[in-house]
Design a protein that fits this description.
The chain is α/β, with parallel strands linked by helices. It has one domain (6-196): Rossmann fold. The protein is built from eight helices and seven strands, in the order E-H-E-H-E-H-E-H-E-H-E-H-H-E-H. Strands 4-3-2-1-5-6-7 form a seven-stranded parallel sheet, with helices on both faces. Helix 1 runs parallel beside helix 2. The two termini are 22 Å apart.
């Protein structure tokens, strides 16, 4: 079984309009801690990201936050967790991607969408092959999936990208799915190694 060490969490720095979003963020933080993984996130103490990180920390999980210095006054940061201060938003995003073995995407706004498109595009370009799952709380990601499908139909996006976008409803199932994807990747690599021998 593949060893899952760190999970990147992309989500809003606001709470959103539904209480279910906050509950989902807490569920993700709890599930990551219970899986004995490190939660990697944007470093702030606000919105859904603050809930996910603080819940993971309260459950005894490791938390690694990455935040640009100029955002600390606006988003704060959690006490008692590992925080790395960077210069720019781009550096923050690249560090989040590099520090994670897999990604869970929760509801969020334009910043979350930017992170989503970056990590999905990097996967499509072969720059990483890490699992990506979307926590589809109250159907939040349905319009995004339809947008991706539209770009496929119109010939701008390969179907293989759409095939790698998975919607999952519950945090613990998201973790289980990530582990299954990593196991599949390890099994495929072992088969290639046997053929090479």
């Amino acid at each position: 079984m593949a060893k899952l060490r760190s999970i990147g969490v992309f989500c809003g720095s606001r709470m959103g309009e539904r209480e279910t979003y906050a509950a989902a963020a807490a569920g993700v933080g709890r599930a990551i801690a219970q899986a004995e993984c490190r939660l990697v996130y944007g470093g702030g103490d606000v919105g859904l990201m603050g809930i996910a990180a603080s819940t993971a920390a309260a459950e005894g999980g490791a938390v690694h936050g990455i935040i640009p210095g100029f955002l600390i006054a606006r988003e704060g940061h959690l006490d008692g967790v590992e925080i790395k201060i960077v210069e720019t938003m781009s550096e923050r995003k690249s560090e989040l991607i590099a520090e994670s073995d897999a990604y869970i995407i929760l509801p969020g706004g334009t910043g979350t969408l930017e992170e989503v498109f970056d990590v999905v595009s990097r996967q499509q370009l072969g720059l990483h092959d890490k699992p990506i799952v979307f926590l589809n709380t109250d159907g939040f990601w349905g319009p995004f999936i339809e947008l991706i499908a539209h770009t496929v139909r119109e010939g701008f996006t390969p179907q293989t990208l759409a095939d790698h976008v998975e919607l999952i409803d519950r945090p613990e199932i998201a973790i289980a799915r990530i582990c299954a994807l990593l196991d599949e990747k390890d099994a495929a690599a072992a088969q290639l190694a046997e053929k090479a021998d």
